[in-house]
Amino acid sequence: MTYDDTIGRLPTPCYYYNLELLDATLKNVAEESSRYPGFHLHYAVKANANPVLLKRISSFGLGADCVSGNEVLRALECGFPAGKIVYAGVGKNDREIETALANDIFCFNSESLPEVEVINNIAGRMHKTARVALRVNPNVDANTHHYITTGIEENKFGIYLYDLERVIGAVQKLSHIELIGLHFHIGSQITDMNVFRSLCLKVNEIQEKLRRQGITFPHINFGGGLGIDYDRPYGEPIADFKSYFETFARFYEAPPLQQIHFEPGRAIVAHCGDLIAKVLYVKEGKKKKFVVLDAGMNDLLRPALYQAFHKIENIASDKPEEKYDVVGPICESSDCFGKDVLLNSVSRGDTIVIHSTGAYGEVMASQYNLRELPGTFYTG
Ligand code: LLP
Questions:
Q1: For residue 373, what are the CA distances in angstroms to 50, 133, 140, 214, 298?
Q2: N or C: which end of the chain has fewer CB within 10 A?
Q3: Mean pLDDT in each 10-residue stretch from start to end of the chain (380 residues)?
Q4: Which option is the CATH number for 19-270: 1.10.3210.10, 3.40.50.2300, 3.40.50.12710, 3.20.20.10?
Q5: What is the assigned CATH class of domain 5-12+271-379?
Q6: Whose CA is nearest to atom 24 of ligand 1?
Q7: Which of 41, 46, 111, 245 to mutate to test the pocket of ligand 1 (most atoms within 8 A of CB)?
């Protein structure tokens, strides 16, 4: 990708989205999944809920994976059909459940019996039947950052395996619930296909055990989690959807006619967005040089929260490279985008690009310090 000087003229800090790349990514994910009949995609809205992007994503026929009542409403506004919306989350409140039921979404992914009981009561009151998939914690380690791993027993997500049969039995007795499947999501930013292979094998085992007791489901949902290459934003900007779907097609033993659902978020949008910032000051320490940006951790939280790496580039300079700590203006030590980053020699006013921030960037921005929210601009 080459940057023209329009980027240098954008008011900063802002997110700059490449819609051409988004389209190419969507075309690729739709093609790769359509090789396998019965595969369905629900974009994880939490990764980026920007309406401009959501409208593009829905136009490629994907469904939506939502985690709040407001995400359900946003997805509907942006063209996702209710029949392709799934709604997950450890704790849905009554109003959110009513919103989802009133709009006849496809399925609730539910993580506990108490929540399914509440959905049952509300559905009864509204003269509806709620379709539910139970989120199971399969105890498979995603080998990713501990804040974004979700499928091992010591975290709060899903129904534990030892409890699954009891919960299924109890849910089957509820008169306003139709139990249609199981749901899994073991973590995010997973690039090792062996992790997904382990998930497939574990799900095969779980289903076989249930089948022997006469329990089968028409739907299975493997969640999201496919990672991207943060080190090389110019390398392969489209995630490896081919290997991802191949892994499930090869190792997952689907019962006849079962529909298989996926909820990719990051892999769809991460490379399509960059955070653009300007250099306020270059500050010389005793041993280090600091580049102070006009963007802070309120604009992009990932480095502060997960020590996440994003490639950083000075597009305004072709002078020899120097090492800098790239920091934001906020009074927190964690307001740092990268340490010892090699950048073409930096001056005040230079334009800095923080790459691959289309996922969990804009959507996690806040007004901490009463700062403005970052702007948004588009190309393609
Ligand atoms: N489905 C469920 C149930 C999820 O919890 C998530 C993400 C996804 C799908 C989408 O996962 P993806 O394909 O994007 O990996 N804020 C963190 C990531 C948190 C992910 C939480 N769950 C980050 O910036 O890395």
A1: 13, 36, 37, 53, 8
A2: C
A3: 73 98 98 97 98 98 98 98 96 98 98 97 98 94 64 74 95 98 96 96 97 96 98 93 98 97 98 98 94 98 97 96 98 96 98 98 98 97
A4: 3.20.20.10
A5: mainly beta
A6: 360
A7: 46
Residue nearest to atom 23 of ligand 1 (CA): 360
Q: What percent of the chain has pLDDT over 90?
A: 91
225 CA to centre of ligand 1 in angstroms: 6
Choose one of 263, 269, 299, 354 to mutate for the ligand 1 pocket test, by most ligand atoms within 8 angstroms of C-beta: 263
Residue 273 CA, ligand 1 centroid: distance in Å: 17
Domain coordinates in residue numbering, the chain:
5-12+271-379, 19-270
What is the C-alpha separation between 12 and 357, in angstroms, rounded?
15
Residue with tokens 């989205």: 17
**263-295: burial string, b at 16+ Cβ within 10 Å, e else:** bbbbbbbbbbbbbbbbbeebeeeeeeebbbbbb
Rounded-to-integer distance, Cα 117 and Cα 106, Å: 18
